[in-house]
Amino acid sequence: MAALTSLFRPARRRFDSLDQQEILSLAILSEEEDSRIYAAYAANLRAEYPASSQMFVQMAEEEDGHRRSLLDLYVRRFGETLVPIRREHVAGFYSRKPLWLTKSLPLARIREEATEMERQAARFYQEAAGRCTDAEIRRLLGDLAQAESRHERRAQALAETLSHGAAGQDETEHAKRSFLLTWVQPGLAGLMDGSVSTLAPIFATAFATQNPWTTFLIGLSASVGAGISMGFTEAAHDDGKLSGRGSPWKRGLASGVMTTLGGLGHALPYLIPHFWTATAIALCVVFVELWAIVWIQHRFMETPVGRAMIQVILGGVLVLMAGILIGGA
Q: How far apart, in whole angstroms, are the C-alpha atoms of residue 205 and residue 217?
């Protein structure tokens, strides 16, 4: 099968097999793509991170300047028609993420991606210059290698400046707030709901039947059902545009997954066939879950430990006791 697949897979060129015309074409099309990526970063960040957006506007303009220099030289040497060779046609060549993925990247990751893009471009121009014998082409590629290296250092310095400046601090605070509202808060709500609300049905079933497998099935159904319900509720009740809480599908995913995990934590021990062993482990898991919720509330939501303990542990213990009493009645 592998051999058959390889017959239909498009052949990829080795970099050292490219001639000077193909290298210039590859460089031109690569600069075009990088310019579009930086422009997309700038557009995506403009509303929430204007300082970083302006940085990427400048980088997009510089990449476009590189493209024009390369294109002018190409036209003088080889005419108006570019060789249609792109990154994906060259084996081992660096690749870029599709533009549609840039909308989902956080600010810090975008800055890291930009630095890595400049580093890869500088390495490409260094290798390309070393392979070209034409003096003018070699000089331009060498100059671009140095320019990309300067861009890499400047991108790092500018990111550092933005991080410590007033605008950068505002952007960092905004990014932190967005992370909390989009992922932590819905996830924490789901974990609390899944961990606490499923205690009563799971332990009521456990003590009523003393059948681990039946208890596990009830726990699994309660956890998955609660996760689906919480996920859809979180995603549907707020589109995030006015509240600034971020993408509804991200919040729904965080809430639904954490709700399911919160319930499964003390349902999975009942896969153990011995009832009292499974119950002892499940109770230990409940203790760990409740303390984990207290820690998350204190760490990310800045809730005082005492208040978090009263809200979570006391409430969880009451629900647990209700389930045990009902199941043992």
A: 10
Computed on alpha carbons and rounded to an integer, the radius of gyration of the chain in Å comes to 28
What single DSSP character describes residue 134? -
The predicted model scores a pTM of 0.56
Structure tokens at 160: 């550092």
Other CB atoms within 10 A of residue 118 CB: 23
Yes or no: say if 278 and 209 are a contact pair by the CB < 8 Å rule: no
User: Which of 283, 280, 278, 286 shows the shortest CA–CA distance to 262?
Assistant: 286
3-class secondary structure, 187 = helix
Tokens 């410590």, residue?
164
The Cα 267–Cα 185 span in angstroms is 24
The pLDDT tens digits for 97-131 are 766 666 667 777 787 788 888 888 888 999 999 88
Q: What is the mean pLDDT of residues 173-189?
A: 76
Total residue length of the chain: 329
C-alpha–C-alpha distance, residues 189 and 225, integer Å: 16
Dihedrals φ, ψ of 13, to 5°? -80, 145
Give the per-residue pLDDT at 141: 92
- From CA 122, how far away is CA 143, in angstroms rounded? 10
Spatial neighbors of 197 by CB under 8 A, at least 6 apart, are 226, 263, 319
Structure tokens at 9: 């897979």
CA–CA gap between residue 227 and residue 127 (Å, rounded): 52
In three-state secondary structure terms, 248 is: helix
Q: Which residues contact 155 (CB under 8 A, 6 or more apart)?
A: 55, 59, 111, 114, 115, 118
CA distance 28 to 69: 9
Residue 219 CA neighbour count, 13 Å, CB half? 29
What is the phi/psi pair of residue 90, to 5°?
-115, 125
Q: Is 62 left (phi over 0), alpha (psi -120 to 50) or beta?
A: alpha
